[in-house]
Amino acid sequence: MRKKIIAGNWKMYKTSSESTAYFSEFIKSATKCKFLEKTVVLFPPFLSLELAASRAKGISESLSVGSQNMHQAEEGAFTGEVSAKMIKDIGAEYVLLGHSERRQYFAENDEAIANKLRSAVDASLTPVICVGEDQGQRENGRHKEVVSIQIKEGLKNLSSEEIKSVIIAYEPVWAIGTGLTASPEEAQEMHAFIRTLMGELANEDIASKVPILYGGSVKPQNAAELFSQQDIDGALVGGASLEVESFIEIINAMP
Ligand code: PGA
User: Fold this and answer.
1) What is the sign, positive or negative, of the torsion defined by CA atoms of 65, 192, 170, 152?
2) Measured between alpha carbons, how far is 191 from 185 in angstroms, rounded to an integer?
3) What does the alpha-carbon distance between residue 15 and residue 248 come to, in Å, rounded to a whole number?
4) According to DSSP H, which parts of the chain are helical?
5) pTM for this entry
6) Out of 101, 108, 133, 171, which one is annotated catalytic?
7) Protein residue closest via CA to atom 9 of ligand 1
8) Residues with C-beta less than 6 Å from any ligand 1 atom
9) pLDDT tens by residue, 215-231
């Protein structure tokens, strides 16, 4: 059985004090949250990561944290950057790589993502690789081609065995923060396509185990329908993860 994963990407929201308040509220609501057989991961900003890592385990063994980005080098003269080893050292277990906002605003390309992925795996961080087409690419019918290139290029430095440790997040750029969501059928079609591709890059057994998350305006109102699709193994949630109540509703929508 594949892991069911609900992840929350806070982006550049919440100071450390606001993060502390979030975890206090989460503790109060924890009994309402159906963690059973699910992995829940929060991606706060770097400055809240250490406190998040220590609070998360107090809430549930199923709750982990990860960073939203990292540098590919082990260490070095890279002012302003953070390495996989530093992230791991403060108790985080996951890293988001290639989020479309990183690709769009920070010129992150597939080459850099492939190198970051290599370093993340070397540091025993679990990577969540984000892929997805923009509106123009979808309208031109190029969405599968775009996603296929992002996955093949992004994973090129990993062996088939290492692909086992990767989580894929399909996030159509036109659905992120827009209130537009891919229909469950559109999302399922892409997830099935990604799973077939993983079979070609690794093998069918590994492909059947790699969790593929959907992201892009996931809300309590649409989560259950998305989760009912065969190849949707969870969600990467932005806006709706910023409030404990809506995030818990999404976690609970996963059967
Ligand atoms: P959204 O963001 O849920 O606010 O659309 C998703 C994401 O960027 O990961």
Assistant:
1) positive
2) 10
3) 21
4) 16-29, 46-59, 84-89, 100-105, 110-122, 135-139, 143-154, 160-163, 184-201, 204-209, 220-227, 244-253
5) 0.97
6) 171
7) 238
8) 9, 171, 176-177, 215-218, 236-240
9) 999 999 999 999 999 99
Asked about 189 being catalytic, the answer comes back as no
Q: Residue 170 corresponds to which tokens in the numbers above?
A: 């399909």
How open is the CA angle 248-224-203, to the nearest 5 degrees?
100
Residue 20 CA to residue 26 CA, distance in Å, equals 10
DSSP 101-151: HHHHHS---HHHHHHHHHHHHHTTPEEEEEE---HHHHHTT-HHHHHHHHH
Residue 128 and residue 119: Cα distance in Å, rounded?
13
pLDDT tens digit sequence for 154-185: 999 999 999 999 999 999 999 998 988 899 99
- How far apart CA 175 and CA 143 sit, in angstroms, is 13
Q: Closest ligand 1 atom to the C-alpha of 169?
A: 9
Q: What tokens does 245 get? A: 């109540």
Identity of residue 240: A
Please confirm, yes or no, whether 99 is among the known catalytic residues: yes
